Amino acid sequence: MKLLLSCSRLLRTLLGSLWLATLPAHAADVCAGLANARVPADQIGLPTSGAVVRSARAVGPLGQSPDHCELAGEIAPVDPAAPPIRFQLNLPAHWNGKALHFGGGGFDGSVVSATGNVPHAWPGSSTPLQRGYATYGSDGGHSGSDPDASFARNDEALRNFTGEALKKVHDTAQALLLRRYGRLPSLTYFAGGSTGGREALSVAQRYPRDYQGIIAHYPALEFVGMMMRANAFAQSLYGPGGFTSWGKLETLNQHVIAACDALDGLADGLINNVRACRFDPQVLRCWSNIDWGDSCLTDAQLATVRTLSDTHPLAFRLANGLDSAPPYGILYGANFAGPVDIGTWPELLDPPVLGLNGYVASMHSGYLKHFITRDPAYSPFDFDPVTAGPWQARVQTVSALHDATSVELGEFIQRGGKILLAHGTSDTIVPFSVSVRYVQRLREALGSDAVDQFLRFYPVAGFGHGEGRYTLAWRSLDLLEDWVERGVAPKRPTMRNLLDLLGQERPMCSYPTFPRYRGGDVQQASSYSCARR
C-alpha cells in the first residue's frame, strides 16, 4: 500500500511538472507574481491591518481541478493578540467573470479550500472552479477543531467568527481579483451548510451589496438559542436516569415512522407530511416507571425526549426579538440514536469527547465556557437555560453578534438577490424548525408573494445534517444561475437520494408543500405532486 501511495505521489508530481513545463510562461509568471501581494487595510471594509498573499501556486488540470492559480494568504488583525484570518483564493485560467464564496462549518478553524463542489451537488456536475468561477474560503479567523471554542475569549476572533471575517475575506478577494484580471466580478455567490448556511444568510442580511445569490443548507441561524436548548438537553440527558440508549431511541423512531410514514401516500420510511405527523411518546412509558430495556422509556428518559421535541422557552429576548428555541424533529422522523447525536457515554466529559458525547452537547459546553462566561472552568450544569441567570446580558450581546435572524433584507431584495434554502426534516444538529420559523417570519414581515420573488425553501424528508435515509443531491448552482442571471425562477426541481443505488428521485416542493405519492414508479419524481395536505 505504501509503495502504491508513493508511486501515486510520484505520478502526480511528474504530471504537475509536465503541465508547468507546457504552461505558457506568462501565465505561470502572473501567478508567481501574486506571491507577497498586499491588500492595504483601507481596501477592506472592516478594521484590519491589511492582507498579504503568503504563497501563489500554479495548479494544472487534474481530476476536478482545472488550470488555476492557488493563493494562500492572511488578513492581519488589529489586536496583536488575535489570530489572523487565513484564506484560499483560486483564480481560474479561464475566468467566467464570477466569484463564489464557500462557507465553513462548526466553529470553523480550518481553511476552506473552495476547490470542490457546492454542498450536495448533483453527481458528476462541474465544480464552480471547473465552470470558471473564482472561488474562495477561509478559516473563520482562527485555527482549531470542534468542539474547541477557546478562540472566542478574544473579542476580535469572536467578531471574526460570528460574521466579520466574511466581509474581510470578501473584500480581500475582490482586491486580488481586480489585480489579477483587471476587473471585479460581475456576480458573487455564497454557498454553505450548517455554520456555512448561517454565514450564507448572514451576508444577505449584513452585506447585501456584496452578494447576488445564496445557497444555504441547514443553516445554524439561531445558534445562541440552540445552545440554550442544548444546555437544557444536556442537564436532562446527563442528569439522574436521563441518559437514553440508542436502542430506546431506535424504538421511538420506529414508532414515529409507523404512525406517520404513510401520511404522504407512500410507506417508504420517509415522513414527508411532517405538519400532519402526531405521535405521543408517552405511549412508550415503562410500566411502573421501571426500566425494562429498549422497548420503553422511563419518566426521566421521556423528559430528555421532551427537551428535544418541545419548544424551549426563554425568559428574555435574543436578537430580533426571539424568546424561544424551536424544537427538533424527533417526533416526526429525526433519529438521535448515534455517536454524533446522543453519544455513547452517560456523562458529559470535561472537555467533551465527540463520539462519547454527542455533537450538540459537546459544542454547548465550550460555548458556555468561552463565548458566554469566558471561564474555561465553568460547569454547564451551573447554567440556567431559561433565564441565563447573571449571564443574560452577555447571552444577548453574543446573540446580536452570532445569530443570523434578521428579516430586514430590503437592500438584498432590491438589488435582485436570490436565496435557495434546503433543510432536512430529520436534522439532529440544527433543527428543521429553525428554517421554518425564519421563512415564516419573512412571510409575516414582507408578505408571501414578496418572499416568493427572492426565496425558495425546500424541506427534504429523511435528510439529516448532511446525510440520512435520504441523502440530498440537487442542481442548486444551476438553479441559482438561471434565477439570478436569466430571470427563470425554480418551479419544481428534482432531487436525488445518493444512498439509493437505483437513483431514487423526488420533486423538491417549496414549503409548506411536500411530495405526495400519486402512483407509478416510486423512483421517479413524476410520480409525486407537491401537496399541502
From TrEMBL:
GO terms for molecular function: carboxylic ester hydrolase activity; metal ion binding. Residues 1-27 form the signal peptide. It comes from the Bacteria. InterPro entries: AB_hydrolase_fold (IPR029058), Tannase/feruloyl_esterase (IPR011118). Residues 122-151 are annotated as: Disordered. Keywords: Calcium, Disulfide bond, Hydrolase, Metal-binding, Serine esterase, Signal. Pfam families: Tannase. SUPFAM superfamilies: alpha/beta-Hydrolases. PANTHER family: FERULOYL ESTERASE B-RELATED. Belongs to the tannase family. This is Tannase/feruloyl esterase family alpha/beta hydrolase. It comes from Ideonella alba.
